[in-house]
Amino acid sequence: MLILASASPRRKELLSLLVREFEVLPADIDETPKSQESANDYVVRMAIEKAQAAAEKYKQQSNANVSAIFIASDTSVIVDGQILGKPSSLEDSQSMLRLLSGRSHQVVTSLCFFNVKNAHLATKLVISDVLFRAISNVEIEQYWKTGEPQDKAGSYAIQGLGSVFVQSMSGSYSAVVGLPLYETAQLLAQFGIHSLEDMSHE
């Protein structure tokens, strides 16, 4: 039994490329970075806490499967060591996109697998570099009106209209979208699930 600890439709869509059957059970956690916490440590901690919180929530269910495996992920956009989360307003979005305009930044994505039965926990960290072209203030305002930036780390979606800002990228495209598929498949195999082999047994 696989359970995705995320409400993100993007993560659900990406995971469905690897496995046919899984449940979705997001859990709310405090996503405030700790004082002096590095971006890498932060995103790994977020994925672990999401997986563990979803597992605790799941255990309360009467039909809980003791061998359930939880998958959680977290993505942050990093520029000058600063963690850019999701924008809370147009002003917030403007501030973020002006920071990213005409320069490169890092997208740091963590992955956590948590097996409830034996409390086995495994994590991966994927870092990608993204270069933006210069973005005008008018473009930022018009982009905000589309609604796309409003629930995205760094205030843009590389898989959507935000791709028009991306001059180049190096790393994992799927990780920037929200779930690193190569690393997810590796961890699935560690937990006894071989994506392509399983899909061949239809």
Automatic annotation (TrEMBL):
Pfam families: Maf (PF02545). Keywords: Cytoplasm, Hydrolase, Nucleotide metabolism. Signal peptide: none annotated. The keyword Membrane does not apply. It comes from the Bacteria. It catalyses: dTTP + H2O = dTMP + diphosphate + H(+); UTP + H2O = UMP + diphosphate + H(+). Its cofactor is a divalent metal cation. The active site is at residue 74. Its main location: cytoplasm. GO terms for cellular component: cytoplasm. GO terms for molecular function: dTTP diphosphatase activity; UTP diphosphatase activity. InterPro entries: ITPase-like_fam, Maf-like. The record marks 10, 75, 159 as: Important for substrate specificity. One of its GO terms (biological process) is nucleotide metabolic process. HAMAP family: Maf. Belongs to the Maf family. YhdE subfamily. Nucleoside triphosphate pyrophosphatase that hydrolyzes dTTP and UTP. May have a dual role in cell division arrest and in preventing the incorporation of modified nucleotides into cellular nucleic acids. This is dTTP/UTP pyrophosphatase. It comes from Marinomonas profundimaris.
